[in-house]
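Before relying on records like the one below, remember that each one covers exactly one chain. Contacts with other chains, cofactors or solvent are not represented anywhere in the record.
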Amino acid sequence: MASCSLKPEIYRSVCNKDIIYRKVEMDKLLINIDMYDGKYVEIKGKYKTGFEESALYAKGFHINSESALWVEYDDFILKCPLISTETKIDLFGKEESFKKMYNKTVILHGRIDAKQRGHLSRYKASIKDITLVIIE
């Protein structure tokens, strides 16, 4: 019997092309967050968003915000939009493609900011300057 696997959706920015992103396991990053402050990483987790929430969790959802990174989509995505490699649509454009990320496993390329801890400083750190989103 043949198995059916969905192709991941890839959104990429043209910014920061020369940066090398270090692949890090979420648990290791959360335990050693200060070691990764200011570093560019590739990280995988479950994305959850909602009222005052934009977070990447290590395991499951809402286990606790200390086991999550705040996902910061700020002015960086205005100057460096995330464009689908297949459809050429902006992840945060009027089509609202970003809604496809809700409750999904995603891979992100971004920079860790241990000082900015998200809404009400409830999260372990932030990941910002995001240049790659892969929705699995």
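Strands lie at 9-12, 22-23, 40-50, 53-57, 68-71, 83-84, 105-113, 125-135.
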